[in-house]
Amino acid sequence: MSQPITRLDQNARRSRAVIHNGTVYLAGHTADDRAQDVAGQTRQVLAKIDEMLAAAGTDKSKALNVTIWLSTMKDFQAMNEVYDAWIFPGHAPARCCGAVELAAPDIRVEIMVTAAL
To answer: Which CDD domains does this one have (predicted)?
Structure first.
């Protein structure tokens, strides 16, 4: 029997979250206020992730994997200071982080999360 697939906040190109078989897959999230430094953008992104996980019926304590893209690795330490404070104690997910060319020059960080329900 096929498991249902639920898509949240969907448009023609993407869904902000897809729920399937007890797992929530979030799209990459970026900050709304891109005038902020990387710490400010990271705080905004993680708040959006918290909201999307809640809408899907879960939370960051059930995060399985986090992928972080930075526009430059020079922002790694500042991003990590915010990220480390966000992690649910004792429930750190698997994680990778790298520098890539992001969709717009004022995007400093994009984060994607996979979580269990």
So the answer is: YjgF_YER057c_UK114_like_2 (cd06150)
